[in-house]
Amino acid sequence: MTYNPENRRFPLSQHTIGPFFPPGFFQPGDNDLTRYSADATPTEQGEVFILHGNVCKEGRLPVPNMILEMWQADANGRFRSECDPEGDQADPDFIAWGRSWTTMEGDYSFRSVLPGSYEEDGQRRAPHLNVLLMGIGLMKPVTTTLYFPQFAELNAKDPILNLVPEHQRDRLLVQPDGEVDGVPAYRFDILTRGPADEETIFFET
């Protein structure tokens, strides 16, 4: 990039997005969608689970201090939003949104409940999790949508998942991974940059 004397604009360095926040910026329980705060009573609706995994880049190198945000419907497929015609019936104890960040090893985790299915624009959405990433190595936030393997019939009809070529859809499935703290766990590792057939699938927003 060159300096333009007519508008006196100088080139800026091509840094990735910021600012970046230290772990102390986040509050305990930020990654727990089952309650409104760390000392609040958790929801009694739905099946609690843990989603965890690793964020890495090319060469499978871990990406530390990556911020992840996750949002979803409640156990009955409702959102606490005026955009949802059934929003007034949404679970009052379920916050539906959370934030996590990666450790120096690139690890992250969320605690939530299995989301319900719902109708959107006349089409049935399969239970899913929306995840946004921002941080080191990304020029802008990126978003992906994760699905559960046990809902194969609903997955096959989900309009967003069907935007992905059929042979690649399994790359958006979380994987059962035993238990963590006595509740079912699922794993989803995220590759921000790498070979096209391995890099995590992100959607334009």
Automatic annotation (TrEMBL):
InterPro entries: 3_4-PCD (IPR039387), Intradiol_dOase_C (IPR000627), Intradiol_dOase_core (IPR015889), Intradiol_RC_Dioxygenase (IPR050770), Protocat_dOase_a (IPR012786). Residues 18-193 form the Intradiol ring-cleavage dioxygenases domain. Signal peptide: none annotated. Coiled coil: none annotated. Keywords: Dioxygenase, Oxidoreductase. One of its GO terms (molecular function) is protocatechuate 3,4-dioxygenase activity. Pfam families: Dioxygenase_C (PF00775). The keyword Oxidoreductase applies. The keyword Cell cycle does not apply. Belongs to the intradiol ring-cleavage dioxygenase family. This is Protocatechuate 3,4-dioxygenase alpha subunit. It comes from Primorskyibacter sedentarius.
